[in-house]
Specification:
With 145 residues, the protein is mainly alpha-helical. The chain contains five helices and two strands; from the N terminus they run H-H-H-E-E-H-H. The chain folds into two domains: 64 residues; 72 residues, His-Me finger endonuclease fold, CATH 3.40.1800. 65% of the residues lie in helices and 6% in strands.
Length: 145
């Protein structure tokens, strides 16, 4: 007969005490697991919130960029650049349709209306300058069918 069997047989309160101890340990493990899961869920929610915030900021900046192209000052500057470049693409020589910022306005906003930062490009060459943009978005942004 080992010591535990002896204790359980002659001291019933010992068995109850051991059972409560095991229950407490199990409860502690479950609580730790639940706390860990909760922290993980919270981290995921925080990351999702950051992603949503970045998407909102990107959408806002995209809307501002599109608004820029409908601005009266931009329309006048665009006409000036088209006349300066004689309606020809500065890369291939075909008929130009888009005025392109050599240095993007995201990088240097103060250069957005500088003539030295603007050139006239055809649609094909302008797409080559912006390979990161999908064709459908490019067409939609510039109103080209």
């Amino acid at each position: 007969m080992n010591i535990l069997t002896f204790m359980y047989k002659y001291y019933p309160q010992f068995e109850a005490k051991e059972r409560r101890k095991r229950q407490k340990e199990g409860l502690k493990k479950r609580l730790k697991t639940l706390a860990k899961k909760r922290r993980t869920r919270e981290r995921i929610k925080q990351k999702e919130a950051k992603v949503r915030q970045k998407e909102k900021e990107a959408l806002k900046s995209e809307e501002e960029r599109i608004d820029h192209y409908f601005n009266k000052r931009w329309q006048i500057k665009r006409e000036v650049i088209i006349k300066r470049d004689k309606g020809k693409c500065q890369i291939c020589g075909q008929a130009g349709v888009d005025v392109h910022h050599k240095i993007p306005i995201d990088i240097k906003a103060e250069l957005q209306f500088k003539s030295s930062n603007l050139i006239l490009l055809c649609l094909k060459c302008h797409r080559q300058q912006h390979p990161e943009l999908p064709k459908a978005l490019f067409k939609k942004r510039y109103g080209i069918k």
